[in-house]
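Hi,

I'm pasting everything inline rather than attaching a file, because the server keeps stripping attachments. The sequence lines come first, and each chain or strand is labelled.
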Amino acid sequence: MAEFSALLTAKAEWKPHQIAKAGDLATLAAAATALAETVKSTLSLASAGMEVVKLLATLQNINPLLMALEALADEVLKQIQDLKEAGYWYLYVDPYYEGNVTPTQKYNYGFEQLRNKAGKRIWEIKDSSGNWTDTPNIPTLAQLNEEKAKPHYASPRKLIPGGYDRDNPLQDPLRSSSEGGVSKFPTFTTKEVIKEFVKAFDDEGDVPRYKLLGEVSAAPKAGEVVYDDDGNAFTGWDPKVDFGLELFDMGQASEDGSIVKNYVAARKALNSKQSVGKPNILGNTEFVGGSGAIAIVIASGDFQSFYDVFNQFSKMFSDIPEFASDTGKNLLDALTEIVTPNKVTVKLTQVDTKYQSFIVGDIIGGKIYNSIGEIIEIIDGSVVPTAMIGRKEVKDTDDEGMITSVMQDFNMNETERWLDMEVIVNPIRNIDGLNPWITGDMVLEMEKRGESGNPEIQDDVFPNYVFKGQDTTELPKASRIYPKVAIVAMEKLMVLPDSTPPDFGGIKIKDIVPGWGEFFQILENFVLQLKGMISDSSAFIQDMIDMIKQVEAFLEYMIKLIDEFLKFFQITLPSQGVYALYIPNQSEGNEGIQSELKNATGIPDLGYAAGLLFVGTEGDKLIAGGGSKNPIDLLALVLGLL
Amino acid sequence: MAHPKGEWAEAEIRRDDIKKLLENTKQLAEMYSEIIGIKKAGWENVLRSREKRAEKEKQNG
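And the predicted assembly:
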């Protein structure tokens, strides 16, 4: 039951983050550290080498350069140290990938109402003689209530997303999404993101959790006394339950037969931290330090723009694990699939040529499961007559006039009226999302009747497809229009296409700096060995020159790579679509941050949004250029908010 | 321009932390390269002068 309720309450969770300790940036920081440390440890060698060549005029002015180099190495090390020490909580509100919050769709299900070619809904109006006639003119509510007018439903009745809305019959569900009409994309508004930010501070379940290390059988039995980090005893232990603090066993009773002197070394950890929990700032009555936050919301009124900004944003924050691109399907893939779903191959059977065979460009839709797509290719050689074997009773009269009957197979498709074919389909997002092609569903040709989306936004208008001829089903047979028809035999798994550069993961530090750390380790060991054996033998000098040449070549390569990487980080995110709120260090704890988040104005309520909230608490050291003790101010500085 | 206090505002977000780290690391690599280059030139001069001296000693017999 607990697992079930956990599933029902998917929520954004707080996670720890330290710049220079996560993702690709950690790799770069490690490489820069190795270089800086190598430089420092080899400077003395450079000086020692100079003793041998001190008479050479070219080296007389090297000292200032050496000093500058050492100062720079110190600065790099300090910067990395600062970045490593700057720790935050972060909260990512993700409506679209793993979905730790649930986006909403703006539609209701209702019976499909017929539309004319212009996309207007068709109504039936009763005239004075009691006859019903069709009209695209919207009746009044009174006419509908008095049953003098009614929607002209498609026949047979079909429940569709964005169908006739009994509670709001006069407004077209396909009106502009800016006026509350249906949207093809799942909506999560800026207000909802901010609400999630505020809510996350109150989540009682988002606390540090520790899970058992090892097997239950190896842990102390339920009910035994266990100890916390300081050695305080606790009852209530159960190895099957998660607790909110780190626990230890009693440890060894004796050490080599003598009394244990160091209980810390003798004890064994029983659990380890699995989640960090929300920032533990309880307000100024219990926590003297301050806290601050930076909230960033990526938002747009149209999904395509949201997608574009999010793409850039996620590249820039690739040190946040959720945006990292190196594990399986990432967040951007999930968004890309919403914007441009992958093609699918659908095997169709019983394509009835009496109503024509499908061709490239046809829009087809599943009758029951509401899948929609455009045929973009008919696979060569896949069009073959459908094997339709029937059984029939054949009667035979023998010479004595006795009638015997036998069952025989026969080809029901002798005239090859029905065909099988494999088609590649570009799926089209329906109002309720992408629907699968289910075996056995009837596939019919579709045509455009009206549009949905927001006409004021480019690329935000989508055709509304209905089954071809559905407005003729009640007419006499001769006047009916019959759509092309088939049955879904199967959806075939498709190999994913190669991506088109530049990729989301196109630039990764760990790929462009492979082996930096190892290289500098080798270099450092080498020079340390040399230190003790400076000699003036010609063989040694030649070795030294050769080694320097290798290092020079490596450094040249490294500089080129950094340049490549720098090009990427020289960019500044365009301000359009990225909203930030900076809450400098304050002393009101979580409540103070919540209140600032709730009360801040200046953000429009846009339909598609995701958000990232950083929270930092005051430490005891000055950082951010000596102006603050809260790493949030350092973050504000480096993000360009100060 | 500083970000307004207590208000949401559109922001041109940068990553100066990564940029600065990259720039510093690059400068470090360049300067280190320059120093070892000078050092290499020095060692090469030492080798050359030794060769000359050895040649001279050889000529002088």
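The CA atoms of residues 226 and 232 of chain A lie 8 Å apart.

If the labels don't parse on your end, tell me and I'll reformat.
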